[in-house]
């Protein structure tokens, strides 16, 4: 005790200034690195955005109007959320981001309905799937215990309904499409697109609120949102069918999200944010127009998004390349995702770790990690060699492009899915096995539901990587510049990154700066929205676990 | 409640579980059980048991049917032997406690019974485990079918991130049960003494419950498909004393319907709730296996006495 008073004069003093200096320098260096990275990113983004949007070409009074109606309220509201209600801030950005993300996905579907599967074809396809599903369910009710028979029926009936036996037996889909009375495009989509979405929304709301009425209301709002286009569409110059394709998923997603926020009663005021933003833009634009303020002369505008490339920069657009990219993405989602997720499930849940087979599995595992780092041009060569030269698929088609880029992201899909599966605690599997569940039941009921969000996150990020890939597209002969949108997965296609590359080699400066920048921004918007969605999804699931 | 069971069985059981248990403790559990079963008759046929002297072990006429018999059981993890020649008869409707120092193979023994060890690649089992007149390690025994007969509760509560209802119904679902699932869920939750606490929130997540409630949920999940044996590996070691005592009461009631095998490190717990106690010592040997009162009052082996009194372990 006595010695304590003696040493107490020194123990809290800082006698080790020199020793700490190193630590401090290290800390500031790290901070510097972080700031530098962010700064470079920001400069680049601002630079491209400036080139693409050219905000300074607008009337100063136009800028001032928009500043007052959009930027000011947004800043004020953000400040309020930041200081007063953080959870509302979170709701705010989700509520703004969600419709944007869904709109992007709907945009893809819209392109699909326009170029690949007509609304009527989709209607027929959906009807066949519905009939097949009904038959399978009915059969499993009746013949509950005949396991093998049920498996056969589950595989064969949908195949017969959708594909049939080529040249021998027409499928149900073929038969239906021969029918003389088919609903028109709008009604086809109402039945086969809006109603299923509304059903899912209503079913979900009904389940969480445990009230039939609430479910019906939610479904009703979704349908109404989709059908509103019949009345409101012409006012905005939007075709009712287009309105339907965009509005149904957006309204459905918003209904689900608003219900979720209101039910949890946390950060409800954040829901005002997207309304303020939308109203601000609307008011600002109307005011500027009535007062005659000229907006900026942007490269990235509706014209750019909806027309094909041209020899004059002002008329150039990215539409066919956009369609191509969407098709490629769909091919990737349908091919690389199932294969990658399947492989990951096998490696994590089924593969043995011991014995000779274990060694092989380990070898495969190491190779998958290596493949993730193989340069993309090599995958291009691989795609060219396998799909085009060996199998003989058409050069530069969406399937080949999708397969090749899909191959490229396959290792990433596998690895991220494995991580998501590994995050499921082993105790849950043990619990399931101890209950007498088979491997399949455990995977199906415990592992997959719990890792689904993680799998989505990983695959979305991988898809983001995929749509920006350019080198493999060069190898497999994707068109440099396309004027006509592809009308099937087997026709020649362009792709956004490829189109951007060819603009960069044009002689006219406007191409190399303006049009190119507009293309880059389009690509970045798609990419960043997808990544943001993945990150939001990840944060959300991390919090609930 | 098992309809085939006679009141006498229960009385018998009461008689011998009374060994050394404070009176009020027992009454509480009895009351709980009566409540759970929705009747009061049990109180009546159980209460006489308190007047029966409980020190007389020789009069036990407890079920002599064996539920599980192991013969010369050797279990290895790679080269390391975890169980060494364990032969043991586990009786129906008994609560059998397994005690012993850490690493002596108690969990291994449990996992050997329901073949959860199959999942460990390096694990190898020699010897017989007889259940329902069949060696469970015979080639024609499907471990999945076996585990549907033998429920298991783990040390740490491990409910699924599903609703309480779906947690309890899990076993029924995977077995393709197509009767009244809700009734079975209710019955299981009542048997697990959890019904009153959760009956209004069956659709909320099982993870939102407290640790003790989660463990009772896991018990409900294990007994919902109506197994014959319930294995419990230190079910209360992650819980506070109140939650633990609730589960102890519960185990007492469970033994009326199920054969319960429980691993515990808590001597008092073993003494309170079990009918027979098996003492494993290092090296995976079963050193002594007898009635609980005998083990705790007058063990044959000096090593067992040392272990129980805490002289080593
Ligand atoms: N999965 C495994 N792989 C390899 N060895 C194991 C494995 N599980 C247990 N063992 C070994 O088997 C022996 C017995 O382990 P077990 O888990 O059965 O002990 P325990 O009696 O349950 O101990 P505790 O009281 O600490 O839970 C230990 O030596 C342990 O190292
Ligand atoms: Mg153990």
Automatic annotation (TrEMBL), chain B:
Q: Which PROSITE patterns match?
A: ABC_TRANSPORTER_1, ABC_TRANSPORTER_2
Pfam families (alphabetical): ABC_tran
Q: Any idea which GO molecular function terms this record carries?
A: ATP binding; ATP hydrolysis activity; phosphate transmembrane transporter activity
Residue ranges under compositional bias (Basic and acidic residues)? 7-17, 34-44
Q: Which UniProt keywords apply?
A: ATP-binding, Cell membrane, Membrane, Nucleotide-binding, Transport
The ABC transporter domain extends over 68-308
Q: Which GO terms describe its biological process?
A: phosphate ion transmembrane transport
Recorded GO cellular component terms are: membrane
Q: Where is this region: Disordered?
A: 1-64
UniProt superkingdom = Archaea
Name by which UniProt lists this protein: Phosphate ABC transporter ATP-binding protein
**Native species:** Halorubrum lipolyticum DSM 21995
């Amino acid at each position: 005790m006595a010695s304590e008073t003696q040493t107490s004069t020194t123990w809290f003093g800082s006698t080790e200034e020199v020793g700490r200096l190193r630590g401090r320098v290290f800390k500031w260096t790290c901070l510097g690195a972080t700031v530098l990275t962010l700064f470079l990113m920001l400069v680049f983004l601002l630079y491209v955005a400036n080139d693409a949007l050219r905000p300074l070409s607008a009337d100063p009074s136009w800028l001032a109007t928009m500043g007052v109606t959009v930027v000011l309220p947004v800043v004020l509201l953000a400040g309020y959320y930041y200081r007063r209600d953080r959870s509302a801030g979170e709701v705010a950005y989700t509520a703004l981001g969600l419709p944007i993300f869904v709109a992007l996905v709907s945009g893809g579907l819209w392109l699909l309905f326009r170029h690949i599967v007509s609304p009527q074809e989709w209607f027929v396809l959906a009807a066949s799937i519905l009939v097949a599903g009904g038959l399978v369910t009915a059969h499993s009710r009746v013949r509950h215990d005949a396991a093998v028979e049920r498996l056969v029926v589950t595989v064969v009936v949908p195949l017969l309904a959708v594909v049939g036996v080529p040249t021998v037996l027409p499928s149900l889909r073929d038969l239906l499409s021969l029918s003389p009375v088919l609903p028109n495009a709008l009604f086809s989509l109402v039945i086969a697109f809006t109603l299923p979405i509304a059903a899912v929304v209503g079913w979900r709301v009904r389940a969480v609120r445990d009230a039939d009425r609430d479910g019906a209301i939610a479904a009703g709002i979704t349908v109404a949102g989709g059908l509103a286009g019949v009345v409101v569409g012409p006012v905005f110059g939007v075709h009712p069918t287009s309105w339907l394709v965009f509005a149904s998923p957006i309204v459905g997603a918003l209904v689900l999200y608003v219900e979720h926020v209101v039910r949890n009663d946390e950060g409800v005021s954040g829901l005002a944010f997207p309304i303020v933003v939308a109203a601000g833009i609307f008011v600002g634009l109307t005011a500027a127009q009535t007062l005659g303020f000229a907006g900026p002369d942007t490269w990235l505008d509706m014209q750019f998004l909806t027309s094909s490339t041209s020899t004059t920069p002002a008329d150039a657009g990215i539409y066919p390349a956009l369609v191509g990219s969407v098709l490629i993405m769909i091919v990737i989602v349908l091919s690389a995702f199932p294969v990658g997720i399947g492989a990951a499930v096998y490696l994590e849940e089924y593969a043995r770790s011991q014995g000779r087979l274990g060694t092989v599995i380990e070898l495969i595992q190491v190779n998958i990690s290596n493949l993730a780092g193989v340069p993309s041009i090599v995958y291009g060569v691989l795609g060219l060699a396998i799909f085009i030269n060996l199998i003989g698929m058409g050069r530069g088609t969406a399937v080949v492009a999708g397969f090749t880029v899909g191959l490229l992201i396959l290792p990433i899909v596998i690895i991220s899915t494995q991580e998501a599966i590994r995050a499921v605690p082993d105790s849950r599997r043990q619990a399931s096995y101890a209950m007498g569940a088979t491997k399949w039941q455990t995977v199906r009921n415990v592992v997959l539901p719990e890792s689904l969000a993680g799998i989505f996150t990983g695959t979305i990020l991988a898809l983001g990587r995929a749509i920006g890939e350019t080198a493999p597209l060069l190898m497999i002969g994707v068109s440099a510049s396309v004027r006509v949108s592809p009308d099937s997965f087997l026709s020649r296609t362009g792709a956004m990154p490829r189109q951007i590359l060819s603009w960069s080699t044009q002689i006219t400066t406007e191409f190399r700066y303006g049009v190119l920048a507009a293309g880059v921004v389009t690509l970045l918007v798609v990419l960043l929205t997808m990544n943001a969605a993945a990150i939001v999804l990840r944060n959300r699931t991390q919090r609930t676990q | 409640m098992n309809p085939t069971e006679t009141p006498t069985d229960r009385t018998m059981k009461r008689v011998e579980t009374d060994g050394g248990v404070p009176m009020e403790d027992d009454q509480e559990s009895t009351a709980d059980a009566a409540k759970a079963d929705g009747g009061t008759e049990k109180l009546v046929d159980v209460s006489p048991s308190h007047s029966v002297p409980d020190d007389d072990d020789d009069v036990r006429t407890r079920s002599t049917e064996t539920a599980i018999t192991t013969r010369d059981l050797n279990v290895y993890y790679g080269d390391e032997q975890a169980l060494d020649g364990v032969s043991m008869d586990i009786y129906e409707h008994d609560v059998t406690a397994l005690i012993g120092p850490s690493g002596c193979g108690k969990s291994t023994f449990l996992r050997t019974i329901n073949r959860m060890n199959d999942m460990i690649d390096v694990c190898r089992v020699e010897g017989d485990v007889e259940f329902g007149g069949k060696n469970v390690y015979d080639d024609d025994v499907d471990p999945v079918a076996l585990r549907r007969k033998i429920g298991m509760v783990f040390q740490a509560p491990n409910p699924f991130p599903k609703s309480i209802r779906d947690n309890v119904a899990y076993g029924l679902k995977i077995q393709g049960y197509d009767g009244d699932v809700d009734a079975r869920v209710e019955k299981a939750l009542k048997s697990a003494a959890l019904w009153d606490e959760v009956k209004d929130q069956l659709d909320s997540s099982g993870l939102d419950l407290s640790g003790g409630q989660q463990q009772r949920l896991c018990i409900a999940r294990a007994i919902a498909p109506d197994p014959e044996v319930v294995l419990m590996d230190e079910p209360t070691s992650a819980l506070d004393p109140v939650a633990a005592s609730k589960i102890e009461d519960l185990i007492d009631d469970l033994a009326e319907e199920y054969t319960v095998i429980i691993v515990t490190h808590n001597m008092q717990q073993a003494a309170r709730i079990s009918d027979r106690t098996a003492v494993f010592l290092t090296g995976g040997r079963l050193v002594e296996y007898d009635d609980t009162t005998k083990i705790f009052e007058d063990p044959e082996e000096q090593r067992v006495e040392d272990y129980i009194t805490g002289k080593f372990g």
